[in-house]
């Protein structure tokens, strides 16, 4: 039987993700939104691309959680996107209510699912979904690190004129201004970037990565990024559905790893059929540890704002 994936929120991120998933042809996809008819319309439009692109995935749009029943993976993208000038952190109260309500429905209709949270502020929303669902940490994962790392890799590849495929990197920490791009471990075809790019340029690229979301928000005028975010969720889902056990940075509930307890922070994890199959601990320098701790403190503040 085909796997079943539900995407909650049929906005820019959600619908782009559903399109990407349908084209993968390994699962049936349900797209849920509270706006009447809209997810049905988008789903039908995507389904009608099947004969042209050659996929048999069923794509269903709905306003009823009953249609999501028994999903293997549920992706939560519902919420308000960031407006220009608004920090990710300002979003917390706005999206807390939405993510809580959605998570309750996920628990009711897909109690064995793996939840991937995309709604911002990411780390806080992942913490909320973990708390509300009562699911083990293996099954509640936040998408941020893959996107932040993709941005970092894009800029590094541009800088040295290399293929993005040859650029390996990790961005850890919270998905916000305090994220921690580990430039020390960034390589191009195995060569550390310190041998290829000046320290000053690396620092500029690190800063551009930190501001990556805001750069897009400013250019778009309304709304926030969705092409790279949906591609990043897709990579996580590939690793889960195909049990590839890829290691990628995701927001995970830490229980002492990296010296952090009881908090969602971006760290490398192994993703397989069971969700998070391992939290991978990289040895950090004292400076990197300090930055990661700072980032964790920022997440903690947001969690405190939610009062959970
Ligand atoms: N249940 C389901 N869907 C909801 C709910 C709800 N309670 N509340 C809002 N939505 C839907 C909206 O109707 C809208 O279609 O969520 C969708 C959000 O889509 P967009 O406004 O297009 O936002 P998008 O760009 O997709 O971003 C979604 O992902 O990257 C993050 O910061 C971003 O938090 C934002 C989220």
Automatic annotation (TrEMBL):
Residues 147-301 form the Lactate/malate dehydrogenase C-terminal domain. It catalyses: (S)-malate + NAD(+) = oxaloacetate + NADH + H(+); (S)-lactate + NAD(+) = pyruvate + NADH + H(+). The active site is at residue 175. Keywords: NAD, Oxidoreductase, Tricarboxylic acid cycle. GO terms for biological process: lactate metabolic process; tricarboxylic acid cycle. One of its GO terms (molecular function) is L-lactate dehydrogenase (NAD+) activity. It is an enzyme of class 1 (oxidoreductase). NAD(+) binds at residues 9-14, 33, 95, 118-120. InterPro entries: L-lactate/malate_DH (IPR001557), Lactate/malate_DH_C (IPR022383), Lactate/malate_DH_N (IPR001236), Lactate_DH/Glyco_Ohase_4_C (IPR015955), Malate_DH_type3 (IPR011275), NAD(P)-bd_dom_sf (IPR036291). Residues 4-142 form the Lactate/malate dehydrogenase N-terminal domain. Catalyzes the reversible oxidation of malate to oxaloacetate. Belongs to the LDH/MDH superfamily. LDH family. This is Malate dehydrogenase.
